Structures are given as C-alpha cells and as structure tokens.
Inverse folding.
C-alpha cells in the first residue's frame, strides 16, 4: 500500500525541471571530458564504455544512430529533495491561483498549502495530491501551461539553497550529457515527471531538445475555435505514467529502439535499466546513489522521494555501475565549485 | 456514418511502409535540389519558403532547432492505393497464420481474405477490419511484430507494379525530405498508420530515424520473464489514433513544438495543417492532390482511401500549396524515371 502510494505520488506529484546555463557544457579542465568526476571506478567505467562502442575496430562498436542514451530526471539530472520540483511548482501555483478561489482558504487540501502547513502537506495522500495537480496542470491550453512553467522557473527559488531550481542540476551529469553527445550519442530524458513541465526549460539547461523528452502526460484535445485559432486543451485525465514499467513502454513508444546507455537513481528506474541491459551487445547501466548529506542529501532505501532499494540490490548482483555521489563527484552543483567542490 | 467509418478505417486498417534505396537521396540534376519537380508554383513556393526561413537576415528567419517539418505517410510519402499498405500486410499475415487456425477457412472475416474475395474485402466494416488488425498486430512481443514486418516488406510486391512496396515511395518527396534536412530541418513522419509498422523501414527508405516517427499505437506492457528476459507485449487495445484531430495531439506529445512545415494529402491531415498554420511566423502547408491516373492514381473528393475534400477547400481558401501530381511532378516513382518520368 505504502509502495503503491509512493509510486502514485511519483506519478502525479512528480515532474521535474531546472538547470544550468549553457556555459556549463563548455566547462572542461584540460583534456578531461568529465572534470567534475573524481577518478574512480564509476568514471573509468563510463569512459571505457564510450571508448569501446565508438572505436570502429572494437568488437563492441555501435553505429551512431543506435547510440541512444536515456536519463531519468528527478534525482538523476537535478535534485529531487525536499520535494519533487514539479510539486513545488504546483504548490506555488495554488498560492497564485488562490485569489480567484477564495473558498480554498477553508477547503482541504488547499488550506494546508495556503497556510504552509508542512505537516499536513507531508501527510497528503494520493487523492489530495491529484487534486492539487489537477487544478494547477489541467483545464487550460498547453500554451497557457507552458507560460505558467516559464514564469515560475524564472523566479522560484529552492528553499535550502536560495537559488533558481535550474541551478540545482548536477554539474557532473551536465558534463556527462555533453560528453556522450560529443561521441555521437543522442541523449533523452525519460522521466516520471510531466513532459509539459520539463520541455520549456530542458533545451536551455541540458542541451536536450523537447522532442527528446519523454515523461508522464495527461490527455490533450485539439480544438478549432470559432475565431479559427487552434489550441490543445489539457484535460483532467492521466494518459500515460512514464515510471517503473512505464519507462520501457515510453522508450519504445517515443524512441522505438532500445538504449545502450541508461542512468537512473531510484526503483522507478529499475525496469528502464533491465530493458537496456537485456538488449544484447555492449550496454551501460548506472544508478546515482545519494550519499552526500553535506553538499546535497543522503537518502536511499527508506526515502519517500527517490527510494532506491530493489534497484540497488539488482545493480550489485548484475554489476551495474553505482555512482556514490560523495565519493565520485568532485562537484555536485556548479555554484558550489569554488567552495565545497574545489577541495 | 460513412465519414466515421472511413476515419476508423484510416485508424485501424491504416499504416504504411515501403521505400527507396538510399541512393535516391543522392540524386540531383546539376544544381537543382528538387529535380523530380517540374518548374511551377508549387516548387517555387517550397524553395522560396526554405530561402526565407534559413537566411539569417530575413524577417522570417527561423533558428535551426525550430525547423520542424512533419509529413503524413500514406498518400503523401508513398502510395496508398488500392489499399493502405499496412492493410495489405495484414491480409498477407492472415494467409501466413491460417495454417495454425484451420477454422479460419469457414469463419468471416478470415474466409474472405483466404478466398481472395475482393468484393467481400471491400465491403468490410470496422468490426471486421479490427478483427483482422488484432490477430495480425497484437498478442505478441514488439520484437516478434517487428520481425514479421521486416520479413514481409522484404518480399511482398505491389499488385499493380509488381515491385517491392518500398519502391512505391514518391521520388519528389524523397528529394524534398533531403532538401529540407540539408537546410537544417528535422523531418518527422506523422501518420495515421501504426508506428510499429513504419519504424522497421523508414530510416532506410526516408532517412528518418525511428524516434522521428509518430503514428497510431496499441497498448504495450513491460514483462520481466522468469528467465529475466524483458519483453514488451502488444495488447489488443488501441492506445492512440494519430489521425485527424489526433495529429496535432501526437505532434505535441512527441515533438513538443509546432511544425513550421507540414505536408499531407487527405482530410485526415487537415488539423495538422491548421495547427501548423496557426503557429505564427512563416509557415508552409501543402497537400498532395492525386491527379495522375496514368503514373499513379487519380482520386480525391469521393475516394474511400485518402479522401481529400474539406482539406482541399480549406487549402484553396487559405492559400496553402496544392501539389498537382500530374502537373507538378516530373517523376512519380524512381523506377519510372527512364520511361514516363524522363519525358
């Protein structure tokens, strides 16, 4: 039950979004393609794999069109604590929209949001979360939703770091995305988060265009209005949940071939890694283990957000790469580079 | 009712697939990027549009990432007569599978298929078509379905031309796809046909990778089998119909931004063209009008397959480009080039 609830929360509450300036892609220290990664088995495994699949004389050579790399977003490309960023967006939207809905002040679950009742927020069940996601994400055009995301992401600040959420992207992962692309890979986001929440900012932040973002989605309907204006209307119905077993389904639907490289951080990524591993030929599967409570957060098996339990066991059994954030990353966030990161 | 039935047939029966050798992309006569197009208003409109959106000093300049071009498949990139190619595939599959289902000999709608009863086949309703599509497209893994498509497309021959279906792609459209890509466009197929039916051959034939193919789809489910092998299982449920108003929905879901260039040939493409036209800035919308009964087929307003009626009226009112196959194309199919095409 708790399991199911968490999964559903990952589905509904969950979407992600933020990032770093494009200059982050350009960063490199001398010839090291991954300067924010400490030398160690994880970094070596990545570089060895890329060398093996790109060297034409290698037995593991993979032609460019088949170099498909998929990345989870929340907790893999940017921080997902203390709550999924998309949920933070939804909470702020409730506050913005409240002036048009005076009765929310007295009505759960809006009351808890408006009063900043963290205890009540944390205890929310699936139904309450769905209500909050519905009023903030549906019954509007896709253009209006995109505008609300753009407005928010430009101004909202993370509660712990007091920085734009797009600063909470992981510098080592930004480097990894660029390194793979420089080696002929096509990089995709495959997230349980809402695709419409990610697309407005992923190109600027990750260098990944909207058409390479796969995520959860609601039903949209085409409308030709009397003035001949065309819109897509976001209905209050879930269409696709790109999480857990939904990730291979989403990959097949949107990409149409198996990745050779997949990177996640939670049990919601397990099936994506299984699907990737089972493709035959050289494959790279990795999990980010959040072990750094000082620079980021330390959590795994017991965490409500980003629970990493079964997938961690399977990674150990099958020899997948487990990245230990504290040990393997020289820098976590770019803004920490001069302080914590430069030690 | 007939309208609805036709639409549903476009949904279920419809999927497409065939093409030309990659050498077709390379063809060019001197400096003409579109040698298989006769000089005329259609060809000039294409070249003028591409010049306007790619010249940096132009008021209509569009940056490379936003140069999204979408193409219908059946009747736009390859022939759809006398029946959708995917339906021809399904009929052949019924014949192949019949040995395992002896009772089909006596059971409609299989009886008509096995006896080659063209009259009964033509009179089939939605339910019968769905039955045929279901037994040939579902209740198997995606890998097995892909194999059945690859096997068929390599051997099946078009009844009129006695050539592989992939030879029934339009040489002028192959040139147009290459011309757009050479000018920084990203080309997508947006078809009512089944996405899993197209992806096995579109890259070879159109130069369009699987991840840039949008189509109708059924529900698939991820399975981790006892031997740890992972499969995606095709269930007998329609998930998404990428036709008519579904095309803008599919474009939004898969691409996440509006095309600036869209090309179709039937009423099923009308909403894609409306959605494209309404995006603001320079836009190019075109319809292929099948007017050449000698080299291809002549059909439009009354046709059961590929009906072009409302969209033709709207194109005329709104000034969209209507390509007249007989007048505007020097060559239709590459294999005709030395005969009809060279006149």
């Amino acid at each position: 039950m708790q399991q199911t609830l968490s999964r559903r929360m990952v589905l509904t509450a969950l979407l992600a979004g933020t990032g770093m300036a494009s200059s982050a892609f350009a960063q490199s220290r001398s010839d090291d393609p991954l300067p924010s990664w400490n030398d160690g088995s994880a970094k070596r495994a990545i570089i060895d794999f890329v060398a093996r699949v790109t060297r034409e004389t290698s037995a593991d050579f993979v032609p460019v069109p088949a170099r498909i790399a998929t990345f989870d977003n929340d907790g893999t490309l940017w921080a997902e604590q203390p709550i999924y960023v998309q949920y933070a967006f939804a909470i702020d939207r409730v506050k913005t929209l409240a002036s048009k809905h005076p009765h929310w002040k007295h009505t759960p679950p809006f009351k808890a949001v408006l009063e900043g009742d963290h205890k009540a927020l944390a205890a929310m069940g699936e139904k309450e979360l769905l209500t909050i996601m519905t009023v903030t994400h549906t019954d509007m055009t896709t253009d209006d939703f995109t505008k609300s995301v753009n407005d928010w992401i430009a101004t909202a600040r993370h509660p712990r770091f007091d920085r734009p959420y797009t600063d909470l992207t992981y510098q080592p992962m930004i480097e990894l995305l660029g390194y793979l692309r420089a080696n002929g890979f096509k990089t995709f986001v495959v997230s349980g988060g809402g695709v419409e929440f990610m697309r407005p900012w992923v190109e600027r932040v990750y260098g990944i265009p909207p058409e390479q973002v796969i995520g959860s989605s609601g039903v949209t309907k085409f409308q030709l209005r009397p003035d001949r204006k065309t819109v897509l209307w976001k209905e209050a119905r879930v269409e696709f949940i790109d999480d857990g077993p939904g990730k291979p389904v989403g990959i097949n639907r949107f990409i149409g071939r198996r990745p050779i490289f997949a990177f996640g951080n939670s049990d919601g990524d397990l099936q994506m890694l299984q699907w990737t591993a089972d493709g035959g030929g050289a494959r790279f599967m990795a999990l980010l283990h959040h072990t750094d409570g000082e620079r980021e957060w330390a959590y795994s098996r017991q965490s409500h957000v980003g629970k990493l339990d079964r997938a961690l066991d399977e990674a150990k059994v099958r020899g997948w790469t487990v990245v230990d954030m504290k040990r393997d990353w020289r820098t976590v966030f770019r803004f920490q580079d001069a302080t914590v990161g430069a030690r």
